[in-house]
Specification:
The chain contains five helices and two strands. By secondary structure, the chain is mostly helical. Strands 1-2 form a two-stranded parallel ribbon. The protein is globular and about 45 Å long.
Length: 117
């Protein structure tokens, strides 16, 4: 079993494993993207959420693209590196449906709502 929180400090671990919706706000270079990517993978591999049921919002297109890359990369690591069948299966299913991932800017999310509503 891979511990998704092994490289995080205690506050970051709490943010990853909270049982509520979460907002991560901190200064530049503090590890926000790492925490959010870890939380995303945690929700999938430990809590059995589906990719299409998670919404990850950022402020910039650059941050959204980076978060998308990091989450995908972490799911790949989990899939390839875990000896836990449940983690592997959930990570694999998430990778297969990752095209449905809702990782976007707040503006893009609002636009999506306006277009579809």
């Amino acid at each position: 079993m891979i511990d998704i929180c092994k490289d995080l400090n205690e506050h970051q671990k709490q943010a990853v494993k909270t049982d509520e919706n979460a907002v991560v706000a901190a200064g530049a270079g503090s590890g926000k993207t790492k925490v959010l990517a870890s939380r995303y993978v945690y929700l999938i591999t430990e809590k059995n959420y589906q990719v299409e049921h998670i919404l990850a919002l950022t402020f910039t297109d650059k941050a959204a693209a980076e978060m998308h890359r990091r989450i995908y990369r972490e799911l790949q690591k989990m899939y390839a590196g875990t000896d836990d069948a449940t983690q592997r299966n959930r990570a694999g299913a998430a990778l297969d449906s990752f095209f449905k991932a809702q990782i976007m800017t707040i503006d893009a999310f609002c636009h999506k709502i306006a277009v579809t509503a």
